[in-house]
Amino acid sequence: MAHLDEHLISQVVSEVLTRIRTVREGAAPNAASPASNGEFGVYEDMGAAIEAAQRSFEKLRKEGVAARRKAIAVIRRMCVEHAEAWGRMEFEETRIGRLEHKIEKLRICGDLVPGVEALERVAFSGDHGLTIIDFAPWGVIGAVTPSTHSVPTLTGNAINMIAAGNAVVFNTHPGACRCAAHAIRAYNEAIHKETGIPDLLTTVVKPTLETFDTMCRHRHVKLLCVTGGPGVVAAAMKTGKRAICAGPGNPPVVVDETACPKRAARDIIQGASYDNNLLCIGEKEVFVVEKVADRLMTELEAAGAIRLDATQIEALAEKAFVFPKGKGAGCPDPVVSRDLVGRDAAVLARAIGLDVPEGTPLLFGETAADHLFVEEEQMMPFLPIVRVRDTDEAIARAVEAEHGYRHTAVMHSRNIDALTKMAQVVDTTLFIKNGPCMTGLGLGGEGFLSFSIATPTGEGVTTPMTFTRSRRCVMVENLNLY
Ligand code: NAD
Fold it and tell me: What is the pTM of this model?
């Protein structure tokens, strides 16, 4: 009963704060807002969401690792059970990507994201006594999630962060906040039933830049974890708080003359068409050596991808990129058009007056190495193919196209020297050899999953350990066993 009352109190406090704010701002209450009174983690007010997460963090600390295990088990079970419904909800809210992949991305969180078993402990025993190092929680973590995989990212973050003993407040993408709030509420309700802790995951109904700012400044938010493009990474790094940043990528693929063109084509299509190329690890441009270039493109066609000619590629580029202040006038920096991001290949084709079968996985075509489709993270199922002289040129161009994001690169080759050279030179967080990109996150490759790959800040594919603080405890001249 005790935890029920606490939850009731937190709801009342949240409701009062909301009403005060509404009166102060003269704003009409948002009738459409679901659970605006703070029901199971979804709050109108960012301050209230953080205070609630802090209370639940303190409760989790008291309940110990056993409660972490229970909460994680609930999340694992629910993300599998609700994968279909929540995947559909996210798809309907964002209208980007492919439904079957939205569902799969949630389902795989169930067993590929590590939990408390991944926490390490270290001990030093010797003449001077015993020292232990424990990996402790930070408290409340402020997390930002992308539109490209809203519920999967928050699910992976939740498992990792709770495993490390933290609570989380999310500022989700405004275009994918309803599905996120729905999942957060459902997770919390079930976790509460199991552990008596109501608000381990919280969020706001309407995430904005202001709620992001409030989250970053709040005294209870001790650590940030942002997943998104360059804007949010720069914003998080300016806050003065420690930020784990899972930033943008533009993964290049190198195919050399020793690769199996059929297998490379199959893998490239699988990776680049997954969720319509929304994955930050997804293949975004290919550098293929002259000797096998034609063969690779023939195999891409044989495996179902559709080749565009030069005129069609230019027509698509016109639609795919916008220049905010007018092309060539004032702002030369292109931005990917939100109308085509994550849309089906058939939709891209229709945009340039081309009719292709609805199930077409990918469009591709030959371009120069400095084409916009090579330089920009297009996040849509058109893949530029660049023909190069030899492997050295392919690697050099791949490094350029990766822009130093240190995110992901892929190579298809059976030449150990070439694979080793690219691995060393490209210096990315993920380097995948002879497979599609998703093998780098445990889907068809060995290893574990997280949708937050901390690239500029160097933590790599995040785990529970990423969200801990190292604490050392020293006993002098005692407690050693010899
Ligand atoms: P986005 O950058 O538009 O938005 C990501 C999140 O950041 C959203 O919640 C958004 O509201 C917030 N945001 C954006 N600018 C902000 C600012 N100036 N201040 C505060 N918050 C801000 O990205 P998106 O389109 O949602 O996602 C795609 C991008 O995310 C791609 O660049 C992709 O590579 C990257 N991504 C990276 C990883 C990774 O693990 N490294 C994973 C997924 C996506």
Answer: 0.91
